[in-house]
Amino acid sequence: MRSLHHVLYVCYGVLFGWLAWCAVQSARNGAPWVCAVFVAGSGLVVAAAVREAALKGALRREAVRAQRASRLHPADAGAAVAAVALAGWCCDAWAATAGVEHGPSCRYRLPRGNGA
To answer: Model pTM greater than 0.70?
Structure first.
């Protein structure tokens, strides 16, 4: 990937130099509108090189961010386990009785009926 960026920068430099040379030759030969086209093309090449550098930096930042996110710290792992365990509880009474009873305000509490 690194060599691809270098090849692109070399190509941008060669293209910019050629367009600049064409612009100068057009100006010397009395074709200002052609010179303006070559100058505009040179500007687009510079913009492409700047954009390539910005994208390269963004890719590098995202790779570092993904690498840091993939490493889970022990404190984060403990907090994640606790959050999963707490998410499974429907009420405190259920947790205290190991799932046998539910609290009065629990949505999973079955109403006591008169039937057997």
So the answer is: no
